[in-house]
DNA sequence: GGCATGATGTTATTTTATAACGTAGTCAGC
DNA sequence: GCTGACTACGTTATAAAATAACATCATGCC
């Protein structure tokens, strides 16, 4: 799965198309309105497997539309997408990334490569279990756990060992 | 230990004094210069067990000094303190908090109460172990894991059950 | 003292995010 | 169709968080 994030060995157009299809289905099911604008922002978030900043998305959007859009336009779309679980916000990067498993209940755990910038969503139950155990021991009620691990992905380790 | 973060039932002046003493010792040991300014910023970070923003600290600092300080003054001091492991930055809050165990090697794991704002540093090896296991399975080299769990502390659960 | 290094001061700017208010679609019910 | 409520979107201004570039000052070694 980490290999799948290497832009070189996977069909990323398929990633994008798939994400949009799932988003359409999920929103239809929920009666949420995935408008043209929101859908376009989602597509731009999925530009790559690197988290993207709101202003980078804004720039793309402006270029596509020919006219310059306002920051709020993007932030509002992102807010919707995050609420719907289609996109995650990476707190340590002030950036956004498409969710790898929308629909499933999870809070997002990521391995972020500091060399290539790719982020892989892991959502491993073992991490969540460890957090839940420790929280329970201390009587803390978990709402939203943030797990963002910085480091080096396999590919980048190979390049500079 | 979580009870110790309740401002009502602990001597927080002791927390502050203790943090400053340990900081003095650690910096002396390392030959790092804990200047008057840096020491004062550390003290201001320790104002409470709630993470504080750089600009909040800046305001306090200005008030104390009588003259208004520049943001960079605070950011530079914070950078030093974080490097020395005396302070952690909470990514999800853009805020800083005093380290509960300076000197020990760790990356900081926190339980952050959304009601009272207090943050407790946990640094539990089980979370770190789970992260390391999963990273190893994927060939990912861990550098700096960020774990920030939002939720409700015991005290705040009791208040509104 | 003279000099190198690191810390601080000063000013300006960048990046990220939100507030306030108005307009325009969308849809239900009549 | 029209009306009214609701939601989305546009526009402008502003706040909050962080950094850049350059000058000055302090510290400690030679
Ligand atoms: Zn892809
Ligand atoms: Zn996800
Ligand atoms: Zn205390
Ligand atoms: Zn710590």
From TrEMBL, chains A, B:
Highest rank taxon of the organism: Bacteria
Cellular location(s): Cytoplasm
Family annotation (InterPro entries): FUR (IPR002481), Fur_C (IPR043135), WH-like_DNA-bd_sf (IPR036388), WH_DNA-bd_sf (IPR036390)
Keywords tagged on the record: Cytoplasm, DNA-binding, Iron, Metal-binding, Repressor, Transcription, Transcription regulation, Zinc
Protein's name according to its UniProt entry: Ferric uptake regulation protein
Subunit structure, interactors included: Homodimer.
Protein source organism: Azospirillum rugosum
Pfam families for this protein: FUR (PF01475)
Main location: cytoplasm
Gene3D superfamilies named among the record's database cross-references: 3.30.1490.190, Winged helix-like DNA-binding domain superfamily/Winged helix DNA-binding domain
Stated family: Belongs to the Fur family.
SUPFAM superfamilies the record matches: Winged helix' DNA-binding domain
